[in-house]
Specification:
The protein is an alpha+beta fold. The chain has helices at about 10-15, 50-55, 85, 100-110, and strands spanning about 30-35, 60-65, 65-75, 95. The protein has a single domain (about 30-110), classed as Alpha-Beta Plaits (2-Layer Sandwich), CATH 3.30.70.20. The chain contains 4 helices and 4 strands; from the N terminus they run αβαββαβα. The chain is globular, with a radius of gyration of 15 Å.
């Protein structure tokens, strides 16, 4: 029987890169993208390649005064497919453990 391709992003299907396996019960937290200090936007260079590569729209760019927009990861939308990792010219994106629901709720409440 053919491999199951449901749930793959178009990019993963066409490139043959399979997403990380889903976390099993009791396993480590699922992985999502995390943007590090080497991001070009943080250095004042306009780059949004990661956003363009994300089929789930999990990477948003928020405006800032005096520089290019800064990326942020929407953890609830990120599937950990790693499509953004391949296109980042500075390798500033890593897969990191996803925050649990309690941490996410606390962070949202703190930011208003």
């Amino acid at each position: 029987m053919a491999d199951d391709v449901t749930g793959l992003s178009r990019r993963s299907f066409l490139t043959g890169r399979m997403p990380p396996p889903a976390a099993e019960a009791g396993a480590a937290a699922p992985l999502i993208a995390g943007i590090g200090a080497g991001c070009l936007a943080a250095a004042g260079v306009d780059c949004q390649l990661c956003r363009d590569a994300c089929a789930e729209d999990a990477i948003a760019f928020r405006p800032r005064r005096g520089g290019p927009f800064l990326p942020s990861i929407r953890a609830s939308l990120c599937t950990g497919c790693a499509d953004c990792l391949a296109v980042c010219p500075t390798a500033a994106i890593q897969l990191v453990p996803a925050p649990d629901a309690a941490q996410e709720a606390a962070r949202g409440a703190a930011h208003g």
